[in-house]
Design brief:
The chain has helices at 4-20, 22-46, 53-78, 84-98, 107-123, 131-141, 145-170, 242-269, 274-298, 320-324, 343-351, 404-408, and strands at 172-177, 183-203, 221-237, 310-315, 331-335, 338-339, 356-362, 368-374, 385-387, 395-397, 414-416, 434-435, 441-442. It is α+β, with helices and mostly antiparallel strands and 443 residues long. The strands form four sheets. Strands 4, 5, 6, 7, 8 and 9 form a six-stranded antiparallel sheet that branches. Helix 2 packs antiparallel against helix 3 (53-78) and helix 3 (53-78) packs antiparallel against helix 7. It is elongated and about 80 Å long. The model is unreliable at 419-443 (pLDDT under 50).
């Protein structure tokens, strides 16, 4: 047990290193900006705040810490190691790729791009620049890519778990133009996590005694180094509920991670497979995104109004609708016994009984469920229900690739609806009569 105290000392030093280095805080700030941009988009589209950007950022940080602990423990027992050059290369590659698209911040893209670049540089082995460029080329050529790709596979197992566990609570509703030119509702899931990892780093004077024999052995002494990284998961859906979409995507991401892990481990024993594993890391991730987008184009929109009733796109948290148990994808069928087909009819039906409302809601299976609740002062004029789009929406999302600069500058891609001129302010409706907490009716 002589190895315990030295490794506890190294662990403390690595944790202190994590606290004082800027990269982890940069990742947390970037995540906060991403969710603040999402909040601004929700206000632009619906004139309400669905989620607090601070709450979303805290969830992302806590989720990243949990996955960081799990992946760090697994990678330590596997013996996954990185050099200082690897750490710097990963961050530079991730930031450069994020200037193209923000979802390229994902570790798999950075690792895959470095593997492909290393293969190209090794093919052009006669090219040897000088100066800083020469040092950068030597660093990339010296990267132990199979080990880096094994780490990418482990992280994506963690990403799939996080997406399944936290994705629904962090999904954001949006409006965009459908295939036939009409506005349709959907959900945007841009999930990012700051993951603090503790990674073995080979050194000539490091600690050599381990209580286990690592699978990926560097044949040298080791120390620990903190590696904060960003994991990213991006999905849009117009055809499924967020929970169902995340369930499908998480399974596919698991299969992708397993394939990447197999190719990466094979590349450890036979190096020519390294470029194949790198292509799996980058192109495989892109294939998941492409297939998901193709699937969405082929399926019918889920958030459009039926012939009778109003389809619920989302429910504002802690609103009357949330307390009643109304869920996204259900249909608001009757209000106070009146069949509703528009927001105006919904508002008029709510005004029929100023103190109380009775609802008939059709669930996802088309079955009716009945709800009732008092209406109190200051509550949302539509009970906190965000409806699928109709002719009253003034703004819609214009799909465009989002880059790191767009996140930093908080730039939104929204445009005015072209069918008619509508003010940017929300639909002006007279306030509904409400009941105060003391039970008196206020008109």
């Amino acid at each position: 047990m002589e190895w315990v105290w030295p490794w506890l000392t190294v662990l403390g030093e690595a944790l202190l290193q994590l606290l004082i280095q800027p990269f982890y805080y940069m990742a947390v700030i970037l995540i906060a900006l991403i969710y603040h941009r999402q909040l601004l988009q929700e206000r632009k589209l619906f004139h309400v705040r669905m989620q607090s950007s601070i709450t979303q950022a805290i969830r992302a940080v806590l989720g990243g810490i949990v996955i960081g602990v799990i992946v760090s423990m697994i990678s330590l027992f596997l013996g996954t190691y990185l050099t200082l050059g690897s750490l710097i290369s990963i961050w530079i590659a991730a930031l450069v790729l994020a200037l193209i698209r923000i979802r390229y911040l994902c570790f798999a893209y950075a690792a895959g791009a470095l593997g492909i670049l290393q293969f190209a540089l090794n093919v052009a082995s006669s090219w040897q620049p000088v100066g800083m460029l020469g040092q950068a080329v030597d660093t990339v050529r010296a990267l132990d890519m199979p080990v880096l790709l094994v780490l990418a596979a482990l992280l994506h197992f963690g990403e799939a778990i996080l997406a399944r566990m936290q994705g629904v609570s962090m999904a954001s509703p949006f409006l965009m133009e459908g295939k036939r030119g009409k506005l349709v509702g959907g959900y945007q899931m841009q999930l990012f996590w700051a993951v603090p990892l503790l990674i073995l780093v080979p050194t000539t004077g490091g600690i050599t005694e381990l209580a286990w024999t690592p699978l990926l052995h560097a044949g040298q002494g080791y120390t620990l180094m903190a590696l904060p990284i960003l994991l990213g998961f991006s999905e849009n859906t117009q055809s499924m509920l967020p929970g169902r979409k995340l369930q499908v995507s998480a399974k596919r991401l698991m299969l992708y991670s397993l394939a990447l892990l197999v190719f990466s481990l094979l590349a450890v024993w036979w190096s020519p497979l390294t470029v194949i594993a790198a292509l799996v890391a980058f192109a495989g991730h892109e294939l998941l995104v492409w297939y998901s987008a193709l699937e969405e184009q082929q399926l019918s929109p889920a958030f459009v109004h039926p012939q009778h009733g109003l389809k619920v796109l989302s429910v504002i948290p802690e609103s009357p609708a949330a307390e009643l148990g109304i869920e996204a994808g259900e249909t608001l069928y009757k209000v106070n016994g009146i069949l509703v087909h528009s927001p105006e009819e919904l508002h008029r039906a709510l005004r029929m009984n100023p103190a109380f409302c009775k609802l008939e809601v059709r669930n996802h299976q088309g079955e009716s469920k009945f709800m009732q609740r008092a209406i109190y002062e200051g509550e949302h004029h539509q009970l906190g229900v965000i409806m699928a789009p109709d002719k009253h929406e003034a703004w819609a999302v214009q799909p465009r690739p989002v880059t790191l600069l767009h996140v930093i500058t908080l730039k939104l891609f929204t445009r005015r609806k072209e069918q008619q001129r509508i003010d940017e302010a929300p639909l002006a409706l007279p306030p509904a009569p409400v009941v105060s907490d003391k039970g008196s009716v206020e008109i």
